[in-house]
Fold these 2 entries.
Entry 1:
Amino acid sequence: MSARGEVATDRTIVLVGLMGAGKSCIGRRLAARLGLPFRDADAEIERAAGCSVEDIFELHGETAFREGENRVICRLLDEAPHVLATGGGAFMHPKTRAAIGDRAISVWLRADLELMLKRTGRRNHRPLLKRGDPRKILSDLMAQRYPVYGEADLVVDSVDGPPEVTVERVVAALEKRAASNEGARRAEGAEA
Ligand code: S3P
């Protein structure tokens, strides 16, 4: 069976989670592993707006960013199945979360605070982390967002170390979901 055939790829696989959880890094590798295209919602927003996420926050504010993010993600969900890395706030937007719930398989990449701090500390382009102490901001966001990220279809711990380890965890979680859906379909067929 091909790598792609191992998991249900009739739906786009959407990675959600906080900044620094590894959504883009894992997403790119996951897409290659599954033989699917990869899209990064932030990069698509920047392309559509013709400026950086940081500039959109600065010039238009967070609310306008979230509306643009919703439009871009809905457009991407209309495309053929792919792996989509979303920005950390996307799944918090009720309309975006509902669209993902209807049309995709969502995977929360959950990481611990130290790992996210380490990863986000490598670059200084995230507007939310410039508003104060990144440790406090990220831990407040964990408290606010983790209950909502918990609504994702699958939860996978993003680990420090080679990205392939986390990629294989996502593949295993997708396979398990596909197997249990198949089991449910067979049981329904047997009943009919
Ligand atoms: C945000 C996360 C960022 C980007 C924007 C807002 C957030 O994406 O969309 O800065 O609200 O958590 P990453 O999660 O890819 O850093």
Entry 2:
Amino acid sequence: MKSYFGTLADGAEVSSWSLENGGTRLTVLDYGGIVQSLEIPDRHGRYANVSLGFGSVEEYVAGSPYFGALIGRFGNRIADGRFTLDGESHQLPRNDGAHSLHGGPEGFDRRLWQVEPFTEGPDVGLRLRLTSPDGDMGYPGTLQVRVTYTLTGGGDWRIDYEATTDRATVVNLTSHVYWNLAGEGSGSVHDHELEIAASRYLPVDAGLIPVGEPADVAGTPFDFRTAKPVGRDLRVAHEQSLHSKGVDHNYVLDKGLTARPEPAAVLRDPASGRTLTIATTEPGLQFYSGNFLDGSLVGAGGRTYRQGDALCLETQHYPDSPNRPEFPSTVLRPGQTYRTTTVHSFGV
Ligand code: BGC
């Protein structure tokens, strides 16, 4: 179940962990908590890896657009990499133009996590732990992070995120799997059908920072309230699509922030029959239609990844929340425990 995957420049070994349960096969790296492969069957029982990834640790280190990785401390963007908390201003490294993206240039996606396997009743899984020191990537507080990947007896992949701090800070953890239900490297996902349970989304500026109020999806290319092919409206010349070269927007889930995971999105590949249903406690979902894949990366299966060859559905709080007091809070204080859950269910 545990095997050698590679060695980092500083000599540290990277291991891969493979688990299987309820018909789902998952391979995870301790480097970045990366889902290196996730295999599920099609309607004829044929397995495919439905998550983009690389075959070597060198490729992940050299320049991965967060393939399969755990994202922290803060998923998505913080405007100008700056925020003020309890009257104190914090400057983060800017790694996305003027902004901070996905926790900065050395985020949790580039750390070696401590991994421990477990079996609990019908479930199997991995517990991933990381200590992020005070000041790490500009964020205040020592953050103790625990992420649990569970493969349930029914084949669901469940992620439980937990964090505590010794000083007030902001946290927004997510997972950055690039989905292609026909199999990684098999071509575009534009024929996949997608449904998102959100009547509103967050319009953005040219730097993909939310501006103004949430807007209605009705009458826009961003309307996925009823399942439709991902590619149907991608070329509609809407001002918002020009900023993002497709969709790269946060959806305000109708269910809001919930104590238990509730349905947020359903993705279906009509050709293979494979479906993915995502349920989450989080109030937001970043739908990124793989716009910046440009054919320059070669995946684990030896094929190049081009624009639209995968899509991401990242459950999270809204982008730039630390600067938007009207958004659900991302502040974590000593004595509190950050807890969110996202469940991925597969079917045919
Ligand atoms: C962001 C995109 C970004 C991608 C890869 C997504 O979460 O929304 O703008 O290009 O991650 O970095």
